[in-house]
Structures are given as C-alpha cells and as structure tokens.
C-alpha cells in the first residue's frame, strides 16, 4: 500500500484510530470522529440566507461522555506529522480541551496546553499514544482535583435517550461550574448570551450536583431555582427541568396547566397550600422571587425555610437587581448564605449600585453574543435607522400654542427625550406605525412576530391603537393581531404564552415598554422596533436578544431591528459585545443623537453618576406595587405633523462587520459586483429570453429593485434602474420606451388582430411594467379577453412559436435605446 496515495479519511481509519484503540480508548464510548461543534455562521444577503462552513474536529476523545480531554487533527500522508497542530490548537481553545494532537498516519505531534509537560510539544510514535488514565491524571493535576472533587466532576450528565446533546459551549459552561464548585467555590457566575440555552445549562449543572453523593453526603440535596417571570418558571418545569419529576415543585398557591414542547398538557406540582404553608418534602423548588418575598415582613415566605435548608440556589437573569445590596433577591441570597449560589446572566451589570462580579466573583465561563453569531447558533440582524424630523430638529411650540386640554404649551425646545414621556405628538406616533406597517408589507410577511418597545405603558397603548388602524384588514381577521402586553394589562399578559409559542399565529404585533425586554423566549420574533431611548447597555443587549434565536422550522435565520430613537448608537460602544468588565460610569443620561455617531462619554472616564440611572428601574414588573406619587402629566399637542428625513440600512457583511450605506449605494455596489460593466449587463439582458429571470435572480440575492425605484420616485423598469443606478446611464421611463417603439412602427408586418395584441402588450408594459410578455397566460386577462380566445390570438401569429418570436422582437425593440 502506498501510504502517500491514501486520503485523509483512510489515514484516520487505517492508522490513527487503531493507534488510539491500542492505547486503551473505548471506540464506542470515548472516541468520536468528525465532530461538528459549530453550526456555521448565518450569512444574510438581502433575503438570501446561507451558512458559513461549520467547524469540525477530526477526533475528540472523552474521558467520560461530555468531558472532552483530547483532540486530534488528521492530515493525509503528503503532509508532515505536525502540519495540523495549529488548526488543532485553535479548535482546542474553543472547546477548552487541554491535550492536542496532530497526525499524518506516521506518528503524532503532541501539544500539552496545561503547560505541565516538558517539553510542551513533542513527537510521538504511532504506538506511544497516551492512555485514558495517563491523560486523566494530567487533567486532574491541571485542575487541582482530589478524590472527593473528582467524583463530583465525573458525575454523569442527564441523557434522556433522545440523542439531544449539549452544545460545545454548554459543555464548557457546565464543566467550568462543576469544577469550580467541586473545588469549594460557593459563588459562581455564568455569562451566556440570550438564546444560548442558559436554563438547559443550569439543568445539567443541577442534575449532576443533585446526583452526586459527594456533594452532600447526607443525601438531602435541596435546590432553589429563582426567576422573576412566571412564564420562565412554568416553561422550565415542564421542559428543561422535567426529568426531576416528582422531586420538583413550584412555590406557588396557584394551580396551573401548562403545555410541554411535545404538546402534552401537565399540571404543575405546587409546594404551597392555600394558607401558604410549605411542603418541605420536595428536593427541587422553583419560585418567582416576588412570590416568596416583599416589602412587608409577612410576605417574606423564604424565612419559613431554615437557613441551611437549601444546598444550591440558582438565580436566572441575575443582572436584574439580584446583586444590589438592598434588593429583594439579595435578601434571599443572604438568608441562605451557606448554600452554593450560581448566577446566570446574559449581561453582567456593573455600576456603583449593582455589581454581580463583586458578589459572585469573576465569571467562570463567558459565551458572548458575538461568538454565538459567529458560530451560527444565534441569528444575525439587519438594522434600519429612521430619523424623524421632530426627533432630530426638536419641536418648539408656536406662541400661544394650546394643548388638547386647552392649556398653553410651555415655550421651550422639546426633543427626543421629551416625546411620549412628557409631550405627545400624535402625528409622530402615527408616522411610526405607518413605517412599521410599510416594512411588514414590503417584506411580504405581515405575520412575522414583532415587538415594539415604547416609552411607557401609555405610549404602548397609543402605539397599539395606531397599529390597529394601519392594519385594520388583519385586525378584522383576528382582533389579537395587535396587542399591548405590559405589566398592568392582564388581557395582554394572558396572551404572552401565545406570542412566544411558534405554533400560535396570534398575536402578531405586540407593543410593550419593558416587560418583553428580558427573559421571554420569543423564538420566532423576526422584527424588533425601538421607539424609546435605551441608556443602558445591559437592557440594549437584552432587547437585541429577543430576536437572536434561530428557529429553523419556521425558517427564521435573521431578524430586523428598526430604530426610531438612535438607540443603536450602542453598536459603536466597544462594550457592546465583549467579555464582561466593570463599568464605573455607565453614561445612562448620555445624549443618543445623532444616532450615527458613537455616544459621548461623561466627563472623566471613571466618574460615577450621583444617582442610579433610569435603566435600574423595571417599570412593567408584574407582582410589584405601582410607584406612589403623582403620575407625570403628559401634554398632548395635535396637528403638529412629522415626517421622515432620512432612512439608512445597516447590514452585516461577510466578515460580520456592520456596514452603513444608503440604499442607492448599497444597490450600486451589489450590481457592480454582478455586472462588471454596462456592456456586460447589456449582453446578459439581450441574451435572456425571460427578462424577468434576471430580476428574480437579483431578488434572490437580496436586491429588491422595487425599493430603489420607490426611493428614486421614478417610473422606471428594472432595465433602466440597473443602467441608471449601477452605470449612471440616463434612464428612460416605461412610457418613453413604449412611445419610441410606436414611433418606429415595428408591427406593420403583422395582421390586424396580431397588431392589436402587440399594441395591448405594449400598453401592459407601459402601465404595469410587465416583463414576461411571452407568457401566454397574459392573454387570459383584459383587454385580451375582448379580442378573442387565447387559441385565436396565438393563431393570429401562426402558432405559439410565432407569438413568442413576435414578443421577443417587441422586447428587443423596447431596449434598442440604452442611453
């Protein structure tokens, strides 16, 4: 056998795998080949969505399932033994694997990422591959595991038999948390971007600790899972936490029937009776934190538990107040201070008043939004920025201007911070609703789940009404097409489950202020609209996270964010998506305009604002009393008017960079990539029997010519649009082209009936821009139906071939003039 003629796969099968098996690795349990660990980045080009190449490791070796400790990169024998080592090291860094090998079938290059080996990198013969015991001993030493902590680390993951496996970063997160706890760390913080499966990750951590005898020798392993949204608790119980079965209950007095992901309805088990007495027989408790605490002593139900009752507490979305010293959550954590406590968050908050890293310590694991999009597990997004004149220029009332109640409006300049908070311009609300509706109509999908974030609950009510009036046809179909979902709106909250259910069509458009900004798993949300300022990077990340889930069943691979308030200026902030760092001056009150510039920083980078920022108050939080004090009186001014003065499209290029271009520049650049010159385009156009086919190809690549035609405001056909936009050629309108054909009198060789058909086709082109004129179906509509049957009209040209020949001559005549 000529080894150099073998493929890489042959080298794996005939040399590498036998060497690994001879070293004592179990092929069925410990060895996996061709392990794809990313999905491949989602690349969006207009409406065309593709995936980049997924990353694949040739071999991953596991000491136990989901505890990967070695990786092998294979090359064919025309390469040297170490040619794959750098690629393998890159993969190992991502997978957190310490022992890295490269092989061409002659031997192995071995790199020890722990740094314990000397030398760190060396070559091994085919028969010198390390055994599982050898590498595990090195792993134990690297992690500092003793016999007791090793037993906790080696506790099996939960396997439900369905084949579902944790993603690589979930494995990394679980293993990092378990190892930290096994070594005695009792405060653990995990940072994982919204949509990456924090709850499933938490389940696997809890399961392994719950099953581990060493973690609690007495066997009473009690767990408390805290969240601040009822929907999070309920869905967690029937889905991710379902394997806990009868050992699990909810700290609530309200019985509820919930539908699982598989469609089966189940009743939630409750740990409280009607008199709020606790059943202490369970091991896993889930609770809305508002249900077990409150400002009054009688509401502090958690104090009914002894301080050492719980061994483990997991706090979901722990950035929202849990680490503030005077918060309700912190009171619970302090009471159970002897328990191991794990915080889960997408956006660790760092201000003078709230510090998660101070309480939990530095994160043991981080998986960012940027990494999730790069790996293809999270959806990328387009951003459309709409600038309204009143927001940019401000509004100053005319002298003596009266509001809706007949009171004189204070004479000052009102700006974007005032609108819908203290001063209401209804025309601005109506314009916003019109633009949202226009986007839905132009996208071709008016049923895409949409969240509109408003200034407050009153603004959300007005926006709901404006959207209902703009979409009255679909509201007639179902009154739930548009709904307000806020903390004070029970009818709206009752529909929250339907909104996030991929199987439920209604509601489609929801208006809110803050209720949907966090913790709601809206997998099929395709449009997010920002019509309020967002001073907090934490909240901005959470809002963006509402759209980042990929839902392949409904072909949701990206989403769109429409920004009316300049909130996406956060994209320019270097902290938008990096590793969590302490932020001492969050700049919550920084001006958000102009939206296309990086927001200004406060004086002195380390300056701390004297009072908490607005972002630290959750307005629409269910279960909390409404704030006391007089409500803010809003001023309503009618008849002022509003208009859009600029619209920009931002998109992610193939390198993942957010690029801003005008629609015209974007279209021009894209067309010139496809057609190098005007001559090349003309040749392609003239050679195409179906002109419409070229338009369809461009639309498939995301170049919808209708949008640029609307922007130009000219009645041009696709041919002239392309020539004009891409190559600066003088355009002719469809009317001008049709008149030129008539002047040349190109139909004289045909009989009266055929000429009448061609004249009518020309009118069809002039009025409607129809390009596929050779489609005989066009003869089935007026005015052709008045001229005769389809068969009669085609026979006037001597048959179908004659009809098609005549129409192609007509099209050639239309495009005879190109300048």
From TrEMBL:
It comes from the Bacteria. Keywords: ATP-binding, Helicase, Hydrolase, Nucleotide-binding. Residues 179-366 form the Helicase ATP-binding domain. GO terms for biological process: DNA restriction-modification system. The keyword Nucleotide-binding applies. GO terms for cellular component: cytosol. Coiled coil: none annotated. It holds the Pfam family ResIII. Residues 586-627 are annotated as: Disordered. GO terms for molecular function: ATP binding; DNA binding; helicase activity; type I site-specific deoxyribonuclease activity. This is DEAD/DEAH box helicase. The lineage of its organism: Bacteria, Pseudomonadati, Pseudomonadota, Alphaproteobacteria, Rhodobacterales.
């Amino acid at each position: 056998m000529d080894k150099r003629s073998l493929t890489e796969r042959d080298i794996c099968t005939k040399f590498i795998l036998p060497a690994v098996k001879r070293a004592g690795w179990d092929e069925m349990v410990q060895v996996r080949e061709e392990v794809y660990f990313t999905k491949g980045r989602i690349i969006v080009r207009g409406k065309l969505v593709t995936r980049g190449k997924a990353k694949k490791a040739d071999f991953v070796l596991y000491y136990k399932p989901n505890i990967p400790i070695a990786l092998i990169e294979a090359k064919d024998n025309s390469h040297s033994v170490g040619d794959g080592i750098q690629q393998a090291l890159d993969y190992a860094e991502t997978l957190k694997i310490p022992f890295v090998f490269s092989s061409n079938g002659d031997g192995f290059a071995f790199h020890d990422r722990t740094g314990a080996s000397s030398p760190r990198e060396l070559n091994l013969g085919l028969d010198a591959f390390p055994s599982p015991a050898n590498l595990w001993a090195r792993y134990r030493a690297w992690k500092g595991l003793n016999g007791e902590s090793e037993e906790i680390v080696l506790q099996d993951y939960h396997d439900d038999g369905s084949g579902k496996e944790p993603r690589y970063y979930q494995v990394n997160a679980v293993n990092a948390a378990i190892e930290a706890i096994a070594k005695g760390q009792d405060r653990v913080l995990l940072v994982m971007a919204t949509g990456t499966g924090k709850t499933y990750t938490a389940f696997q951590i809890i399961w392994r600790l719950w099953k581990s005898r060493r973690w609690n020798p007495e066997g009473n392993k009690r767990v408390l899972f805290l969240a601040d949204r009822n929907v999070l608790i309920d869905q967690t119980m029937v889905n991710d936490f379902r394997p806990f079965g009868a050992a699990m209950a909810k700290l609530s007095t309200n019985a509820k029937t919930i539908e699982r992901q598989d469609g089966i309805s189940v009743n939630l088990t409750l740990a409280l009776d009607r008199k709020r007495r606790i059943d202490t027989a369970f091991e896993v408790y889930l609770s809305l934190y508002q249900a077990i605490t409150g400002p009054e002593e009688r509401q502090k139900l958690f104090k009914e538990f002894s301080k050492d009752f719980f061994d483990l507490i997991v706090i979901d979305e722990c950035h929202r107040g849990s680490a503030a010293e005077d918060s309700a959550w912190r009171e619970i954590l302090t009471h159970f201070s002897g328990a191991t406590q794990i915080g889960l968050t997408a956006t660790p908050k760092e201000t003078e008043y709230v510090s998660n890293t101070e309480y939990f310590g530095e994160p043991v694991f981080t998986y960012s939004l940027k990494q999730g999009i790069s790996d293809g597990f999270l959806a990328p997004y387009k951003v459309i920025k709409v600038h309204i004149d009143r927001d940019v220029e401000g509004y100053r009332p005319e002298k003596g201007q009266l509001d809706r109640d007949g009171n004189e409006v204070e004479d000052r300049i009102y700006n974007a911070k005032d609108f819908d908070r203290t001063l209401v311009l209804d025309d601005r609300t109506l314009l916003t609703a019109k633009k949202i509706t226009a986007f839905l109509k132009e996208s071709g999908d008016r049923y895409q789940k949409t969240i509109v974030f408003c200034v407050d609950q009153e603004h959300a009510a007005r926006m709901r009404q404006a959207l209902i009036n703009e979409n009255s046809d679909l509201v007639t179909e179902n009154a739930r097409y548009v709904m307000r979902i806020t903390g004070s709106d029970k009818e709206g909250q009752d529909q929250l489950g339907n909104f996030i259910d991929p199987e439920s069509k209604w509601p489609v458009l929801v208006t809110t202020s803050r209720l949907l900004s966090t913790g709601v798993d809206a997998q099929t949300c395709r449009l997010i609209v920002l019509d309020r300022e967002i001073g907090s990077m934490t909240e901005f990340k959470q809002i963006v996270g509402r759209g980042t889930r990929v839902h392949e069943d409904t072909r949701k691979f990206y989403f769109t964010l429409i920004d009316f308030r300049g909130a996406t200026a956060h994209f320019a902030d270097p902290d938008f998506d990096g590793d969590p760092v302490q932020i001492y001056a969050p700049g919550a009150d920084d001006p958000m305009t102009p939206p296309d510039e990086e927001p200004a920083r406060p004086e002195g980078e380390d300056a701390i604002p004297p009072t908490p920022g607005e972002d630290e108050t959750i307005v629409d939080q269910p279960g909390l009393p409404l704030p006391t004090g007089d409500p803010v009186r809003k001023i309503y001014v009618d008849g002022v008017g509003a208009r859009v003065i600029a619209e920009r499209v931002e998109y992610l290029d193939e390198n993942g960079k957010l690029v801003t271009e005008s629609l015209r520049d974007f279209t021009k650049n894209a067309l010139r990539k496809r057609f190098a010159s005007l001559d090349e385009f003309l040749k392609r156009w003239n050679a195409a029997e179906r002109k419409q086919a070229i338009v369809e190809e461009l639309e498939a690549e995301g170049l919808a010519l209708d949008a640029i035609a609307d922007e130009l405001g000219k009645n041009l056909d696709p041919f002239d649009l392309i020539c004009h936009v891409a190559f600066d050629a003088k355009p002719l309108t469809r009317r001008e082209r049709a008149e030129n054909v008539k002047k040349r009198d190109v139909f004289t060789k045909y009989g009266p009936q055929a000429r009448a058909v061609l004249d009518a086709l020309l009118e069809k082109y002039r009025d409607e821009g129809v390009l596929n004129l050779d489609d005989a179906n066009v003869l089935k509509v007026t005015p052709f139906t008045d001229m005769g049957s389809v068969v009669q009209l085609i026979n006037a040209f001597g048959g179908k071939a004659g009809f098609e020949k005549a129409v192609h001559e007509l099209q050639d005549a239309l495009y005879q003039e190109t300048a």
